[in-house]
Amino acid sequence: MKTSLTHIIKAWVPEKSKVIDFGCGDGSLLKDLIDQKNIRGYGVEIDHNKIQDCIDKGISVVEKDIDEGIQDFETCNFDVAIMASSIQCLKEPHLALRKMLNLSKQCIVTLPNLGFWKCRLDLVQGRMPVTPNLPSSWYETKNLHLCTIKDFETLCVEEGFVINEKLFLNDKGVKSAAASTFPNTFASEGVYLLAKK
Amino acid sequence: MKIKTELIKFDQGLDLESGERLDTFDLMVETYGQLNTDKDNGILICHAFSGNHHAAGKTADSAVLGWWDEIIGPGKAIDTDIFFVVCSNNLGGCSGSSGPLSTNPETGESYGKDFPSVSVTDWVNSQKLLTDHLGISKWHMVVGGSLGGMQALQWSISYPKKVKKAGIFATATKSSTQNIAMNEVGREAIRKDKNFMGGDYLKHSVKPKNGLKAARMLGHITYSSEEIMDQKFGRKFQDIKSKIEGTVDYEVENYLQYKGEKFSDTFDANSYILMTKAMDGYDASYSSNGSLENVMKKIQAKLLVVGFDSDWLYPPKRSKEIQLAAMNVDIECSCVILKGDQGHDSFLFASERFVNIIKGFLKSK
Q: Residue B240 pLDDT > 90, yes or no?
């Protein structure tokens, strides 16, 4: 995960909170949060090598397909649920968000913006976008439900999700004036802190 | 690998969950490797239903490799070059620890059917006395599969300060209705053997071998799985020359006959009943009126829960229940479901992922 994104997520996670990271990868983010913010953290991951990395790091990890299992944790009372860069890979992103907010007070979601100008340019030229944030070709990508910043925020309104915080990054993975002012065009990635109404 | 087998006497006795008391008892114990000077490299192995203290290697007493030799040994998942590994035969067993075959000090004869009922918690309490005897104040890990996994879980609950990590494999927080049902069929086969004599067979110098054999044959079906039996035996006919029983047609029948026969030569029928009753009776949440969360709150150990996809005796969902209860009460706990080629018995084998996960868990902070 890019440094800037990690910094943002860390800043939004309260000290000593209980955190679940869906698609936690090798557990680095959780490890940082445990070391620096004294959280109780759990990861959910499906990739065997990444699960091994988590166990080697001493991170609590559960082997599970996020597409099927988010609701399994709804009794666990989390303070923060994180889903970094994977919401668009799920079969039903809107339901996944609802489920995440059922098991956690807040959730942090990051998503690639299909409205980013370089994506638009690719499309105008008649090609599927390939950017640092969307690096795979159309036939290899795991993304099923790409959206723009505008689309995502419309969904939040429709679903009644409150956006407590949001930040936008350019394609170098850092905050910029352009990305913050006109995110739908100049943000490569959006980072949201959501809560239920 | 340095192996030591020893019978240890406990004169302080043990109060059992049933309300009965053993005034003295023995545990047959085997150790592997060396306890370090800080005494913090101990790993306690808890055996499954028909296992015993002989977990690894070969000894003067046993030319057969220990039941978890794939996992325990120099350079293996539980590395005896690093850890001091301890395994004891459970109370009520028939491999040297006090059990139905031991002499009842009150009568001077074997206990037989009169050996008191023991529970998973009693086993843990007896192993706690062994822990004190060895001078170990905290186990680096307590670990086991199946009935052994129940003991590892109970250790973390009963003695939270004495367990750093717990490996809880192919097990559940309690036996399912189906587990109890299967065990009862086994016990019924034993009880209805004409040589069982109401459990007093030792007095008559006979053994209910047929009943034990039938019980074990059923057991082996539950330790395997439909798919594995198909792969291993299919519908292949047994070669006439190597038929164990004249009635055998298929290879699978011959296999079960062989396994059952071997088991009934060595295992004690009263132990069988005692051990399966302990398994049926286990419910981690019992002391807290059914609230697993309430008992698991006490745990300070880090847990590793492993289930196997082909296990239908303690299927993966039972492992996930342990993980979820742990997560509910903020206990550190990882849960993985591995591909197992051997059904319930998969935990006995050193598949690559299983080994790496145990090693990673042992090394991690």
A: no
Contact A62 B334 (CB under 8 A): yes
Asked if residues B229 and B252 have their Cβ atoms less than 8 Å apart, the reply is yes
Instruction: State the ipTM, two decimals.
Output: 0.93
CB B141 within 8 A of CB B164: yes
Strands B302-308 and A40-45: unpaired
| Residue from B311, B319, B345, B346 carrying the catalytic annotation | B311
CATH topology of domain A3-196: Rossmann fold (3.40.50)
- Is the pLDDT at B28 greater than 70? The verdict is yes
The CATH number of the domain where B267 resides is what? 1.10.1740.110
What is the SS3 assignment for A194? strand
Domain end point (choices B214, B245, B277)? B277
B26 is catalytic: no
- When CB atoms are compared, the residue of A18, A52, A77 closest to B360 is A52
Asked if B55 and B11 sit in the same domain, the reply is yes
Predicted local confidence at residue B308, as pLDDT: 97
Q: What is the pLDDT of residue A104?
A: 97
Same domain, B90 and B239: no
What is the mean predicted confidence (pLDDT) over B158-174?
Answer: 98
Question: Residue A52: which of B304, B333, B357 has the nearest Cβ?
Answer: B357
Question: CA–CA separation, B170 vs B310, rounded Å?
Answer: 10
Question: Contact, B104 vs B114, CB < 8 A?
Answer: yes
Which is catalytic among the residues B88, B97, B98, B146? B146
Same domain, B218 and B336: no
Residues of B in contact with A56 (CB under 8 A): 360, 363-364
pLDDT in tens, A24-75: 999 999 999 999 999 999 999 999 999 999 999 999 999 999 998 899 999 9
The overall pTM is greater than 0.90: yes
Chain B contact set for A55 (CB, 8 A): 304, 334, 336, 357, 360-361, 364
The number of domains in chain B is: 2
| C-alpha to C-alpha distance for B225 and B36, rounded to whole angstroms | 42
